[in-house]
From TrEMBL:
GO terms for molecular function: RNA binding; translation initiation factor activity; translation initiation factor binding. GO terms for cellular component: eukaryotic translation initiation factor 3 complex. Residues 22-39 have a biased composition (Polar residues). This is RRM domain-containing protein. The keyword RNA-binding applies. Residues 1-79 are annotated as: Disordered. InterPro entries: EIF3B, eIF3B_RRM, Nucleotide-bd_a/b_plait_sf, RBD_domain_sf, RRM_dom, WD40/YVTN_repeat-like_dom_sf. SUPFAM superfamilies: DPP6 N-terminal domain-like (SSF82171), RNA-binding domain, RBD (SSF54928). It is found in: Cytoplasm. Keywords: Cytoplasm, Initiation factor, Protein biosynthesis, RNA-binding. Residues 55-79 have a biased composition (Acidic residues).
Length: 335
């Protein structure tokens, strides 16, 4: 049996004071350094856990990236040499340095390995006087014998040009005369001319049994050129073409070629079917031409104001330009 004791008037007040004191102590404990350290430690633990979580996510994302397939032949094809080897490519020689500074010397003595150093010593005395020769190369055959030519790289283009000028045609001894050229001209020297088209006998008209000549007639309306064989009974038409020439035509002295005039130059025709044999580019409109008596050379003139090549002398066989001359004043003329 439980008996409820009557409440004392001062017991409630004492209880309130005790409760207030306990609450104040709890607040002090919460603000104490020790409690703060415990909270900071908890926060640091949370931060570390978050960082570890992020690292795990990043690592997982890296694993998800596609691994390059190195077995693919096209892998890396988009990478340039400058990208892969920037320092090495920065030191590469420029075209003007690697070509214009290098000369090729042909007709050197062919010597065996025992005499190679002596050859280098002799040749170096010839070329060291033109400047600093940075590199020298003598190609060798399978037996170690020189092939009769060499490459010489000078410090600059002026040295190389002077070496070509002074030693091209230089006679080392009675059996060896130098042939020297710039490396930049190597492509031109090694170009093999295309196989010429067989145009037949250029003098086929001389084999005509009756020994008749040929002559050409030009009409302006319409623009036609006709070539006839001057047969005994009446002329026989051999060839007729429209717009074969723009202004005029000229026979060569021996009748080997028929020259037609065009805005861009002169064309030569010959053979039994009058195919194009050669052409000479002389822009500006050619007014006059003349052949040498042997038909080996051709002179074309285009006397336009400011034309630095009013006269040009051509090699008929090769089509190469031999020389050119300007016109100071007046009209050009042949004498």
């Amino acid at each position: 049996k439980t008996t409820n004791m009557p409440e004392r008037p001062f017991d409630s007040e004492n209880a309130r004071k005790k409760q207030h004191a306990e609450q104040s102590n709890n607040e002090l404990d919460e603000n104490s350094p020790t409690n703060n350290n415990e909270q900071s430690g908890d926060e640091e633990d949370d931060d570390e856990n978050q960082i570890k979580g992020n690292e795990e996510e990043d690592y997982q994302e890296d694993d998800d990236e596609e691994t390059p397939d190195f077995t693919d032949d096209e892998y890396g094809s988009e990478f340039t040499d400058d990208y892969l080897c920037p320092e090495l490519m920065a030191e590469r020689p420029q075209e003007h340095e690697s070509l214009n500074n290098v000369i090729i010397v042909d007709n050197l003595p062919k010597v065996d390995p025992a005499k190679l150093e002596k050859l280098k010593e002799v040749i170096s005395k010839v070329y060291n006087k033109f400047g600093v020769c940075r590199n020298v190369y003598y190609p060798l055959d399978k037996d170690g014998k020189t092939k009769g030519y060499g490459f010489f790289e000078f410090q600059n283009e002026q040295m190389a040009l002077e070496a070509v000028k002074q030693t091209d045609g230089y006679r080392l001894d009675k059996n060896h005369t130098f042939s020297v050229t710039l490396m930049s001209e190597f492509e031109r020297l090694t170009q093999v001319p295309s196989e010429a088209t067989d145009i037949g006998n250029l003098l086929s008209w001389l084999t005509e049994p009756d020994a008749v000549d040929q002559f050409a007639v030009q009409s302006d309306d319409p623009k036609k050129t006709m070539i006839y064989s001057n047969a005994l009974s009446q002329p026989i038409l051999l060839e007729e073409r429209s717009k074969w020439t723009e202004t005029d035509f000229v026979w060569s002295p021996k009748g080997t070629y028929l020259a037609s005039f065009h805005e861009k130059g002169i064309a030569l025709w010959g053979g039994k079917e009058f195919r194009q044999v050669q052409r000479f580019a002389h822009t500006g409109g050619v007014q006059h031409i003349d052949f040498s008596p042997c038909e080996r050379y051709l002179v074309t003139t285009s006397a336009r104001p400011g034309n630095s090549e009013a006269f040009i002398i051509w090699d008929v066989i090769t089509g190469q330009k031999k020389r050119s001359f300007p016109v100071e004043q007046g009209s050009p003329y042949f004498k």
